[in-house]
Amino acid sequence: MKIKRSERLIDITRYMLERPHTLVSLTYFANRYDSAKSSISEDLSIVKKTFRERGTGTLETVPGAAGGVRYIPEIAADEAEEFVKEMCERLSESDRLLPGGYVYLSDLLGQPSVLRQVGKIIATKYLEQPIDAVMTVATKGVPIAQAVSTYLNVPFVIVRRDSKITEGSTVSVNYVSGSSDRVEKMELSKRSLKRGSRVLIVDDFMKGGGTVNGMKSLIEEFEAELVGITVFAESTFSGNRMVDEYTSLLCVDDVNVREKTIHVQPGNYFTN
Amino acid sequence: MKIKRSERLIDITRYMLERPHTLVSLTYFANRYDSAKSSISEDLSIVKKTFRERGTGTLETVPGAAGGVRYIPEIAADEAEEFVKEMCERLSESDRLLPGGYVYLSDLLGQPSVLRQVGKIIATKYLEQPIDAVMTVATKGVPIAQAVSTYLNVPFVIVRRDSKITEGSTVSVNYVSGSSDRVEKMELSKRSLKRGSRVLIVDDFMKGGGTVNGMKSLIEEFEAELVGITVFAESTFSGNRMVDEYTSLLCVDDVNVREKTIHVQPGNYFTN
């Protein structure tokens, strides 16, 4: 029995959404639904149009015998802005203020709906650049790295500050923690990154930039290539920041421990 | 201009897939597409049928004025089995063997396509039980917890072995590491879990069960409720395992360090 167009559209949508940045041939769908390639081709233009109109992303058509379609997730600029504004409000809640002027983020970065948006927003920034891996440092960067890697459909690697026997041989670097001026160590499993990989660094929070700088050194040690740096939130930093080029979704620009107020504004994501 | 059925089907599919376990009213879709509720109702039956036939999950209809539809992600049994078989082969690769008989897993648990399946498989196990949060221990459990939480659409919380100033007040417990008989400490941010929460524990690997047992104690300290325990892989353990009831996707049942062989079979997920 032939599959109806309506059912094909639903299943194609699901299939493509689950496989971002993956080329799927028309033949695959033609076989899957026992339908003519011409019908599949029409289906795909409807999906493409709807994705574009609803801000779901781009369905890219690759012509030729080895061609097919590829789904590129993308967030619409106004949806991204609205989300970042909402996050500014959430981050400004005074009960997030911790001793030492730190801001509690773990609840937000443990919510699937927040991580979905953060992942899409960061991925949208790097649509034009080929990326082989997303890198972050344990523990709080992990959810962000995973969210981004889902939408870019590339693996993520986790740099650790503590050595673990379950990682095998590692490469380590020393780095200066910008905010405390202490020298610390971070390491990455040797087999987790190939030479020449193009790497995107993400993290939850950046103050002095020391941790991000450590990851940059690691990328050099692996003879890999840095594509970009994006953090969920940065805080204004009075000293010399160790990293110049980066993108932030949010900027914590004032923390008043005595009056228990936090002021947060959108980061340089929209202006960079 | 009215939106055509074909475009509605595509957008409804996308909208529901992005919001598992969330009740969406017919009125919402009727407004979104400026269409009659009767048309939306027909759309939803087509989506429901296709989701069922293609093993995408269940589109549950909730009748009444406060009703609507809810998408419950679910993996088909044969797709789950096929994936677990593939993982058995991947885990058996001899170059995963690390000194001490440990098995290198980080590459697999950093791949979005693997995590998607692991998340779906574990979530499918707990469809009938209400869950408020997924709990895991840093660092390697995090990707699994996040994947599961995406499909259950509940937050995940991360237990840590090291104290961090960015977590605020914490509750800590001591636990006995089953494999080494050492007493260690783990802690969880006080504000991350409400009293009475129903908690699902997940982790990457279980040997003696000490870590999982520690998380069980933490759940008690928070006066929360344990719903279940699922690990990606367990290894056969000669001593007394500290945890009785758990589910595993994979079972590493023989590691021969001298001959460099690892034998892995499906865990008790399919028989439990």
Automatic annotation (TrEMBL), chains A, B:
<protein>
    <submittedName>
        <fullName>Purine operon repressor, PurR</fullName>
    </submittedName>
</protein>
<feature type="domain" description="Bacterial purine repressor N-terminal">
    <location>
        <begin position="4"/>
        <end position="73"/>
    </location>
</feature>
<dbReference type="InterPro" id="IPR029057">
    <property type="entry name" value="PRTase-like"/>
</dbReference>
<dbReference type="InterPro" id="IPR000836">
    <property type="entry name" value="PRTase_dom"/>
</dbReference>
<keyword id="KW-0238">DNA-binding</keyword>
<keyword id="KW-0804">Transcription</keyword>
<dbReference type="InterPro" id="IPR010078">
    <property type="entry name" value="PurR_Bsub"/>
</dbReference>
<dbReference type="InterPro" id="IPR036390">
    <property type="entry name" value="WH_DNA-bd_sf"/>
</dbReference>
<dbReference type="GO" id="GO:0003677">
    <property type="term" value="F:DNA binding"/>
</dbReference>
<comment type="similarity">
    <text>Belongs to the purine/pyrimidine phosphoribosyltransferase family. PurR subfamily.</text>
</comment>
<dbReference type="InterPro" id="IPR015265">
    <property type="entry name" value="PuR_N"/>
</dbReference>
<comment type="subunit">
    <text>Homodimer.</text>
</comment>
<dbReference type="InterPro" id="IPR036388">
    <property type="entry name" value="WH-like_DNA-bd_sf"/>
</dbReference>
<dbReference type="GO" id="GO:0045892">
    <property type="term" value="P:negative regulation of DNA-templated transcription"/>
</dbReference>
<feature type="domain" description="Phosphoribosyltransferase">
    <location>
        <begin position="108"/>
        <end position="235"/>
    </location>
</feature>
<keyword id="KW-0805">Transcription regulation</keyword>
<dbReference type="InterPro" id="IPR050118">
    <property type="entry name" value="Pur/Pyrimidine_PRTase"/>
</dbReference>
<dbReference type="GO" id="GO:0045982">
    <property type="term" value="P:negative regulation of purine nucleobase metabolic process"/>
</dbReference>
<dbReference type="Pfam" id="PF00156">
    <property type="entry name" value="Pribosyltran"/>
</dbReference>
<dbReference type="Pfam" id="PF09182">
    <property type="entry name" value="PuR_N"/>
</dbReference>
